[in-house]
Amino acid sequence: MSALNIVEGRGYIAKIEQHSFVDGEGVRVSLYVSGCPFQCQGCYNVAAQNFTYGEPFSETLLEEILASCEPNYITGLSILGGEPFCNVDITLKVAQAFRQKFGQRKTLWVWTGFLFEYLSRTTNKRFQLLSLIDVLIDGPFIQALYQPNLPYKGSLNQRVIDVQASLNEGKPVTYIA
Ligand code: SF4
Questions:
Q1: Average pLDDT, the chain
Q2: Phi, psi at residue 74, to the nearest 5°?
Q3: PANTHER family, alphabetically (predicted)?
Q4: Which one of 23, 34, 36 would you pick to mutate in the ligand 1 pocket, going by the greatest count of ligand atoms within 8 A of its CB?
């Protein structure tokens, strides 16, 4: 399937993890949304490629996510998938509520199969989401480029990007090589 053959989410989430130690720096809350058009071979979360996997998102779940982020030991929120940028009805709402509640005191990390260059020139809602993110891990997982123990990514093509620096400079700026 082409990355340009984009499908929009149906408002489902696959999972919420209250204490993740691997989805970014520090102890984090992780939200996994459902549905991804990329269908990467070797995908780490095949079940969540389905757009109706899991349960419908709700205001109650939003409050649960925000409450889980409150303790001081929680560094921030991570959003994974599925594809967060094919679920902007959920992810933009969560990101906006997260920023409203915590400002810049906690960080927002997002994993996507899209490239930063594409997202920085994309539709309004997707760009709004991008502009709220601290760290973006971009690009599809490519099995042939898999390498163990890469920081926060699975294959060598993926990048760990400092989004705010990248938007300022108009080109991707690496956060962790
Ligand atoms: S972009 Fe991520 S979630 Fe989507 S198929 Fe690829 S590895 Fe799986």
A1: 95
A2: -85, 120
A3: ANAEROBIC RIBONUCLEOSIDE-TRIPHOSPHATE REDUCTASE-ACTIVATING PROTEIN, PYRUVATE FORMATE-LYASE-ACTIVATING ENZYME
A4: 36
**30, two tokens:** 């992780």
Concatenating the DSSP letter of every residue in 52-105 gives T-SEE--HHHHHHHHHHH-STTEEEEEEESS-GGG-HHHHHHHHHHHHHHHTTS
Answer whether 53 contacts ligand 1 (Cβ < 6 A): no
Annotated domain spans of the chain = 14-176
Helix and strand totals (H; E) in the chain = 5, 8
- Tell me the pLDDT band of 7, cut-offs 50, 70 and 90: confident
CB of 45 sitting under 6 A from ligand 1 = yes
Residues 6+ apart with CB under 8 A from 6: 37, 86
